[in-house]
Amino acid sequence: MNKANRSLKNLESGKEYFLELVNDLNSSIRRWEAQILDLEAHNHSLHQSINSIHVKMAERSEEYEILKNYVDSLHSQLTAFQNSNERIVQEYESLKMDYVQMKVYYDIQMRDFQVLMEHVDQTIEFLRMTSIRANGLQNWQLI
Fold first, then answer.
1. Each residue of 49-68: pLDDT tens digit?
2. How far apart are CA 128 and CA 84, in angstroms?
């Protein structure tokens, strides 16, 4: 009976040990289930965050396209202004050269006019002197 008691005691010890293992296993399973639920909640939250980020990315993409088109438009306008500016500068240089040529021509014409006026003044003086002499000669013949 001693042997049977020991076997019974061993079986009871094994049963207790086995029950402890089952309890530990059940505790571990509950912890794992709780962690899985936490991970699923976290995963759901991450999916919502990713969806929100996708929406924001789509909005930003639209804003980027609008801004890119605006920048392209400004660049085109700047290029047009630069081309216009170059044409204006060329026209200005051409007008400046025309002005210089006209000024030179005007100065030549003024000089020629002054020379002509001097000749006219000299001719008038000559005619006046000739008239005085002619009058003096006529008066002398009358005497």
1. 999 999 999 999 999 999 99
2. 63
Rounded to a whole number of angstroms, the distance between the first and last alpha carbons of the chain is 202
Distance CA 112, CA 110 (A): 5
CA max distance for the chain: 202
d(CA 51, CA 56): 9
pLDDT in tens, 96-106: 999 999 999 99
Side chain identity, residue 1: M
Q: How far apart are CA 136 and CA 129, in angstroms?
A: 10
Indicate whether 142 pLDDT > 90: no
